[in-house]
Design goal:
The protein is built from six helices and twelve strands. The protein has one domain: Roll (Thiol Ester Dehydrase, Chain A), CATH 3.10.129.10. The strands form two sheets. It has a ten-stranded antiparallel β-sheet, with helices on both faces. The protein is of the alpha+beta class and 303 residues long.
Length: 303
């Protein structure tokens, strides 16, 4: 006898750590600084959204196996901020055998939603959650902070990046991989021990793929007006020929995928492609919605 009852996998409650209190961009502190967050009307500096991505690999490895790390995609819409001291738990629907898509989400201990996402296996992912959200976007009526951006605009230069274990990841990410691994919510020997990894190399954790993709982003020199404060509102990380490895050289190219606005924000969606060191073999992609707070830009209402 079989049942159509949907079953849910869940992880334990975890307490993610805030590691961006000293983050700087555009010459000023970010929303992750408590004082800046309070100035903007938030109760404290939030933990960066992709930190919560680390909650999902144990569940998705159970569902999809090793291929999740090679061709998996998580496509997430962030719903509510988390501050240090709060607990978060990940959930995943168990799909039918052979399926390549499922729904995942995260909640605080009291049930407050943190993020919703699709998790898929490629190459044929079908429409991901963010692709569906992009398809529903209306053109912005008026942009001020992002007035000089255009869809399709490319970054000014290719960026050469790597992530070594003790490499400080710059002003945007004032820590190293090893410092992150000392507090990461879900540990794995695959992150540190080449002999334990199925690929014979230590792999970059899912949340740190976001760091690899973003820490050199200033080199793109997209003409965003400022100073203004932003946050991640939507984010998709897609492995095409993964995983990505610690100590490996990569080439990054960026482009503007979409522009949008809400009552409180102007958003630019950046597609970041991560190639091998020759720049010819696409390894992974990230789609990121940078939501810039209108009221953080001086004189916005008069512009």
């Amino acid at each position: 006898m079989t049942f159509a009852t949907p079953l849910i996998l869940s992880g334990p409650l975890r307490s993610p750590r805030q590691m961006l209190a000293d983050q700087e961009y555009g010459g000023h502190t970010s929303i992750h600084d408590d004082a800046m967050a309070e100035k903007l009307g938030f109760r404290a500096g939030p933990i960066e959204g992709p930190t919560h991505f680390s909650l999902f690999p144990p569940l998705l490895h159970r569902i999809f196996g090793q291929v999740w790390f090679e061709r998996g995609c998580i496509s997430a819409h962030y719903q509510n901020m988390v501050v240090e001291g709060e607990e978060v738990r990940a959930f995943a629907e168990t799909p039918p055998q052979g399926a390549t898509r499922t729904r995942v989400w995260a909640e605080k201990a009291d049930g407050t939603p943190v993020l919703e996402a699709s998790a898929t296996i490629g190459p044929d992912h079908g429409p991901t959650l963010l692709e569906e959200r992009l398809a529903g976007l209306r053109p912005p009526e008026r942009l001020v902070i992002l007035a000089d951006l255009k869809v399709g605009m490319s970054g000014r230069e290719e960026e050469k990046v790597r992530m070594d274990p003790d490499q400080h990841m710059g002003a945007l990410y004032p820590f190293s991989l090893n410092q992150k691994l000392s507090v990461i919510t879900e540990t794995s020997p695959w992150y540190v021990d080449p002999a334990a990894s199925p690929w014979g190399r230590a792999i970059i954790p899912l949340e740190m793929v976001s760091v690899l993709a973003e820490y050199s982003s200033a080199k793109a020199r997209f003409p965003v007006k400022g100073p203004a404060v932003g946050l991640f509102a939507d984010q998709e990380i897609r492995m095409i020929d993964g995983p990505l490895f610690v100590g490996e050289d990569y080439v990054i190219r960026r482009s503007i995928a979409a522009l949008s606005e809400s009552r409180r924000t102007e958003s630019y969606w950046v597609r970041t492609q991560i190639f091998d060191q020759t720049g010819t073999r696409l390894k992974a992609e990230m789609l990121l919605n940078h939501a810039t707070l209108k009221h953080s830009y001086a004189g916005y209402s008069e512009a």
